[in-house]
Amino acid sequence: MLSAAPYGDDDRILRVLGPDEGRLGVFQRLGRRRPAGLDVGVCANLLLRGRAGGLDTLVGATVVHARVRLRSSFLRLALAQYGCELVGAFSREGHAEPKLYGLLETWLLVLDALDDDPRPGLAVGLELKTLTFSGVGPALDRCAVCGRPIDGGGAIDVHAGGARHPQCGAGLPVAAELLAELDGLRRTPLRELVDHPASDAAVQLSRDLVRAQLGSDPATRALWTAL
Ligand SMILES: [Zn+2]
After folding, report:
1. How does pLDDT run across 171-191, given as a tens digit for each residue?
2. Which of 38, 84, 154, 199 has the fewest CB within 10 Å, making it most exposed?
3. What's the gap in Å between 128 CA and the centre of ligand 1?
4. 117 and 44 in one domain?
5. What is the pTM for the complete model shown?
């Protein structure tokens, strides 16, 4: 489950992500049979009934993974919520999203398995993987314009494909080391990024790349950056 919003006094609208279904809005009537344990980041099998007002109605749910452990830390819970919002924002409504679904599943699995809070490389890795898996991954090691490798720094345009040679197009100057750091975080599996640092410049550039696609920061980003 990605998120839940109250609907009237008694009901909720859930946003959920399925591997074959993509993102879905689901109407949950809370007054009567309330399926227990449906919360952000929980993996559940949902029983849905036909559409009313454009939304499926939830008639039953079986929790598969409750992700109880990640709820023992404010930071891990905030990161779980952020991952749900971020991956949800890049998922298409009603289209299969197996790669993004798998990414979110791994994200929640990794957070739930941690004993200590992760370092910033993990969240940057999630952002860059989300961009890549949704088909808008920025060029980092190669020029977005000519396709040749970028050695010795270049420029980056977060709105137009990523890095490029200075002679290939305009953009903010970016050091080769920063491009290499971001490319490494994008390619490294999430579970190997748990203790991985990220430079302030990498955190900021990753944020800018996400914001260029969505138009603003995901609302839940402020939850974990404040901790
Ligand atoms: Zn070029």
Report:
1. 999 999 999 999 999 999 999
2. 199
3. 21
4. no
5. 0.94
